[in-house]
Amino acid sequence: MINNSQHSLIIRITTLAINQDSELQWFLFDHSQQLIQKGCDALASIKEALPAAIRAEVAIHVIVPNDAVLLARVNIPSRNQRHIKQALPFAIEEFIAQDLEKVHMAMPQQLDPSHEQIDVAIIEHSLLISWLDLLHHHQLSPQTMVIDTLCVPIEPQQHSVLIDGEQVLLRLGLYHGVSCERASFNAIYSQLIAENFTEDNAPVLQCVYSQAESEAEASLNYQGAVKESFYKEAASEILAANLLKQGAEQINLLQGGYKQGKQESGGFELWRPTFIAAAASLLLFVISHLASAWYFSWQAEQLRQESISYYKQLFPNERRVVSPKRQLQNHLRLISSGEGGAFLSTLAAISAEFKPYTQTGQIAVKQLAYTQDNHLLRFELSSQTIEQLDSLKQQLSAIGIKAVIGSARAQENTVISNMTVEAQP
């Protein structure tokens, strides 16, 4: 999950709602995990604050607040990834109040084969998309997005709490953590211990204090066994450094349709996509020449039947369909002279921006609807990553077309999203 051959930029998000002016703490580490630069800047300015020589190759990791995520544990007997993905939505239903389609689920990279329990992080699609949309817009495409409580340093068989001003981040295991206000910590944690442990087997609580905490102010008034650790670094820097130290022992929220592309290294890995593409091209060339006559004849008939079917859906009262293309052109001429002209002109304007994405298979248009009352075009799109949708949105914005990415959901390795475009008069 962490590439030690690159510089690493770690950005911490502390609130759910952010914008381009939100000031975020960031830390730049070299390939030896040594901190070489840090700052607190507006999101829109972070990329420019980095040394110019490494901006294009730095690996970006984002720490998000525990308040945005529900960390749960469910029982699934199978260790087959396919079976787990099929069963997981049903297993988490009892933990969430929203519809399953509105939430994204992420699992640890490595599953423990010694038991049937699966740790899972649950987050709303809308929140994840809003963060990624902002980050991508400012050339900050993260490889990983992790949870702050799971970056708190912890020892085996212990609980660990990081004092972060008036907030505390409590880590209860490798993939389990909660956050709360400092004033209520003692009552919450004492109740948790009383419900899950006896006096003899209660874990030691490791209290991690940042540079902002003096020894006189550090006490949490917890009466159980406590081990204290005082750091010279600030809380965010402790989380950032420990994220790099943990490596793969994390839950990366960017899974499935949110998974970001990786830069391959090494001779074979560098050329591997080229070899695969060449082999696939050769195979397609041979097959197409062996069966071209039959295939194109069959395809032409299929397309003709499909065009007639689509035409009948658009114009159910049309009695006779002789030439769908010519008959549709007649309808379009009539529409273009009335209020439908805005729809056609906008569709023509954005078709050139859609073309590079649809031709390469990066984005597919599943549905298109036009509302004449408010002049809105609504697209249902499928893409490989959220980054491609954001890129299309920026392309439309560059030609003066306002586009809004709405709700989205992940299906296997694709993202299904709604995009709304205002028709231009």
Automatic annotation (TrEMBL):
Which UniProt keywords are listed? Cell inner membrane, Cell membrane, Membrane, Protein transport, Transmembrane, Transmembrane helix, Transport
- List cellular component terms (GO): Gram-negative-bacterium-type cell wall; plasma membrane; type II protein secretion system complex
Q: Does the keyword Protein transport apply?
A: yes
Q: Which Gene3D superfamilies match?
A: 3.30.420.370, 3.30.420.380, General secretion pathway protein M, EpsM (3.30.1360.100)
User: What region holds the GspL periplasmic domain?
Assistant: 270-423
Q: Where in the cell is it found?
A: Cell inner membrane
Cytoplasm recorded as keyword: no
Provide the coiled-coil residue spans: none
GspL cytoplasmic actin-ATPase-like domain location, by residue?
16-260
Question: What InterPro entries does this protein's entry cite?
Answer: ATPase_NBD, GspL_cyto_dom, GspL_pp_dom, T2SS_protein-GspL
Regions crossing the membrane: 275-296
Report membrane topology: Single-pass membrane protein
Any one Gene Ontology BP term? protein secretion by the type II secretion system
Cited NCBIfam families: typeII_sec_gspL
Q: What is its biological role?
A: Inner membrane component of the type II secretion system required for the energy-dependent secretion of extracellular factors such as proteases and toxins from the periplasm.
Family under the similarity heading: Belongs to the GSP L family.
Return the protein name: Type II secretion system protein L
Which species?
Dasania phycosphaerae
